Amino acid sequence: MADRILSKYVIPGNRVDIRETIKIKGKEDKTEIRIYQSQVYDILSEDRIEIVMPMEKTKLILLPIGGKFDLFFYLENSIYQCRAKVVDRDKKNNNYLLTMDLISNLRRDQRREYFRFSCAIEMNSRELQQDEIAALEKNVVKEEAVVSVPPLNRSIIVDISGGGLRFVADFKYDAGSILLCKYQLDTDKGPKVFEMLGKVLNIKGVDNRPGFFEHRVQYINIDKEVREEIIRFIFNEERKNLKKKGEKQ
C-alpha cells in the first residue's frame, strides 16, 4: 500500500506521465519505454486516483485493466513517482478516465532534467566539424570555444528538458552528429541565449508533413549551472500554464 501522502503533494490538474516498459518480440533482454502524457482528474483516496485517459492524436489509448505502470507527477518545483495499477475505466462529465490504485510508495524523483516541456522555440544549429569534435574529445578547447559562425540552420524546438531537446526541421542531420544548438529562453534574469552542444540520438519523419524531420538531441558537456537554468525555465513555464488553466476554469 502506498504511503498516505498522496493528497499532500498531488492535486487535480497536475500533469502526469504514464510510463510502461514493453519487451520487444524476438529480441531477448530488449525493451522499449512508452510514455503517455495526461493529467490528474481527481484524488479518490490516499491510495486511489483518477487520471484522464491519454490520447494519441484523436484516439484514446485504452490501457488495460490490471495493467501496471509507472506514474510521474509534475508538481510546481519537483517530480514525484510511484507504481500504479489500472482498476477501472469510466466516463464522467464527458471525460474518459482511468481509475488507478497506487501499489508503491510515492517518492520524490531526483531526475528533474528529464522533465520534458512542450514548446515552440526557434533554434539555430550547425554540425560540428571533425577537427572541432577531435579537439573537444581531447579537451584541447572548451565548449565555449565552439562558436556559432554562419551558416546556421533554422528549426523549431518542440520539447525541451534539462537533458536535451527535440526539434523539427525541413532538413535532417545524421544520427550521431554533434551539433551546436543556439536558442533563447526567458530566465529569472531576463532573456538569455544558450549555445549548447548536443548529440543527435535519432531522427524520424514528421507525420502528415512530408520533408520535415524530428530530431532528438542529448546535451553533452553541459555545465551544472546551465542545466539548472534550463530546468528553472521549464518549471516557471509550467507554473504559468497551470495558472492560465486555473483562470479559465
The CATH topology of the largest domain is given as: Thrombin, subunit H
Number of self-contained structural domains: 2
* Biggest beta-sheet profile: 6 strands, antiparallel, barrel
- Count up the helices: 3
Would you identify the regions where 5 or more consecutive residues have pLDDT less than 50? none
- What fraction of residues sit in β-strands? over 45%
Give the CA-based shape. globular
Class by alpha and beta content: mainly beta
How are strands sequenced across the largest beta sheet?
Answer: 1-2-3-8-7-6
Q: Percentage of helical residues?
A: 10-25%
CATH superfamily of the largest domain: predicted glycosyltransferase like domains
Query: How far is the N terminus from the C terminus?
Result: 33 Å
CATH class of the largest domain: Mainly Beta
Write up what this structure looks like.
- It is built from 3 helices and 15 strands.
- It has a 6-stranded antiparallel barrel with strand order 1-2-3-8-7-6. Strands 10-11-12-15-14-13 form a 6-stranded antiparallel β-barrel.
- Strand 7 and strand 8 form a beta hairpin.
- The mean pLDDT is 85.
List its salient traits.
3 helices, Pnp Oxidase, Chain A, six-stranded antiparallel beta barrel, 249 residues, Thrombin, subunit H, 2 domains, single chain, six-stranded antiparallel barrel, mainly beta
Task: Please sum up the structure shown.
This protein is mostly beta strands and 249 residues long.
Layout of helices and strands, plus pairs?
Layout: H1 6-9, E1 15-23, E2 31-43, E3 48-52, E4 55-56, E5 59-60, E6 68-74, E7 79-92, E8 95-102, E9 107-109, E10 117-127, H2 130-137, E11 153-160, E12 164-169, E13 178-187, E14 190-205, E15 213-220, H3 224-248
Antiparallel strand pairs: 1-2, 1-6, 2-3, 3-8, 4-5, 6-7, 7-8, 7-9, 10-11, 10-13, 11-12, 12-15, 13-14, 14-15
